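Q: I'm writing up a methods section and want to include an example of the input and output format. Could you take the sequence below and give the corresponding predicted structure tokens, formatted cleanly so I can copy it straight into the document?
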Amino acid sequence: MKLRNALFALRVVSIVFCMLIAFGIPLSGQETPLQKEASAPKQAPAMNEVLRQNIENWALQGRGVPSDWSHHHLIFSNPGTEEDAIANGTHDRWLKIVNDPRYILQQMKRSSGVKTLGDPETASLEQAVKTESIKTGARTRVKKDWREIVLAHGQVQPNMYPAKFSFDITTASCSTDFVVYPTGVAGAGAAANIFAYSNLYTGGCTGTVPSVQWAYNTGTGYMVTTSPIISDDSTGSQVAYIQSDGTRAYLVLLKWAASTTQTLSKPKTLTVQASASDYRSCVAPCFYTVSLGADDTYSAPFYDYASDDAIYAGDDTGRLHKITGVFNGTTIGEASGWPKTLNASYQTTSPVYDPTSGYVFVGNTNGVLYAVDSTNASIHGESSKLGDTIIDGTLVDPVSEMVYAFVTTTVDNDNAVYQFAANFTGGQGNGATTGTETGTGSTGYYFYSGNFDNVYYSSTNGTAGNLWVMGNTANTDGTGGSLYRIPIGSTGAMAGTAVTAIPGLTDTRTGQHPWPSPITEFCNNGISDCTASGTATTAGTDYIFFSVDRLATAIGTCGTESGDGCVLGYDITTPTAPTPVGGAKVPTLGTPGCWSTSAIEVDNSVPASGTGSLAGASQIYLLEFNGNTAGGPTEGTYTSSACSTSTAHNLIALQVSQSALE
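A: Here is the clean output for your methods example:
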């Protein structure tokens, strides 16, 4: 216990030191507020004092740093200073925002992400950190640090994100950091359906890099094809995900235990716990399931860290579920009054819970956006039909209280983003298309979520910057897929017309389509904050990452021929002049092609070289489809009927180095 307390104390000092040298964006958060939402004090405490108190509480309570799909969808612009909040009479709201766990995790990653090697059991490696610079590659390529074969016949959805866990933001641990992947294969005695790698970092970890930390079959015949999530205790001891046999889906709650003998083809087959109380007291590894009562094709689970210990998930019969007590409760089950039926004729996609409004925002395959009250399951808002489908989760900013829905095809046959105020009750919101003159959408050529740039994240209340998207997903006019930015104005309103940032990025030949993944953004400035003016990032390098099929012009190691997919990185530090920083070639399907990878998860930033750097500790993680067709929840069920089809190959777990981009 004394050793544990000492480690926590050292961890606090390390985190506080790094954060206090950064610019003071306030952050805090816990399941119970770290600062009580009482009446405003007579005098506002200093910004760094708020920062310090909240970081200390986070570390002392022993919480880790999970990162999963939900952290890319519930995002926070700058809530401003506490002094301003007090002056404006919005102090309680400000406290609620800065105490939200996803806010604190976002700011920890964006403000002070330097990783040094901190395994107590591998002290010899710490000396290596002090002397080894990050091996940067040429700016014309993206470096693959490792590429690990998963299992044959695997399929996952194109917006599936791996889930990454770090012990903390300043320490890269070979033993306690891990990344969770679904295999996209039905569980069996010789096939895991969920697994994790540890020993992740090529520049500091010894032995096999990466190593299988655990591999489980949690249901013979059940596949996992959407994004997993991780609990935020000190070890990330629980994982949650949806598994399906093609008839009925279940929310799975898993306690894992590290193993040196399990492999993907020799997993441990677990027996489900008979009751919630049995699960709460069981010794890892063990798991428990909650039936959704229907199948689930597109919806990933969203966890509410802040209050209800609840997971929200949709199903294929148009319902939205709220399952409570999942990671910490004494009982686990569907909340009273739930599930809520939205439209029984259409599939519900991934929900996003907004802690400011208390609404859950979710779309469906009928192209309608809903706002559901998390307290009583009533529908507060229901948009007009916006198009054919909202296949991905919305982006929600609890600071600006704006919601962004991504619609594959409008009545004018365009990809479009619709912006709604969080308190909307109906209508179409504020729409921006990718432009009828430059491209169109179409059913099956799905339009996945974009992301904001650092200018937006740095702006107060989301009043500057850009939303980046990959459009022209159907490519019917021969121009190829294009990268767009949608400006955000000084009032927080999204521009009605997208700006073409990179036209004709993908192949323009007849029958070719871009098949873009969701876009992941990350600003890297080593141990310091990324900062921005109202128009550009002024300190740090702002990146976006995504994958496409078959480029128009080769970038990095990527090709332009049939079967060539590409993982792309762009420097958007100056948003008006995006610059390619590399591309990693991945195999995909031939004409007409299909998605080449899953969505991309990002690790923390590190300095480019010198004391404190760790080669291999600043990464992006994804699944390479390797010629298999995206799909699920069962093998042979394809995300789009417009894809070429194959399940003959092995999925590939891929780690790509950010360091090669610097």
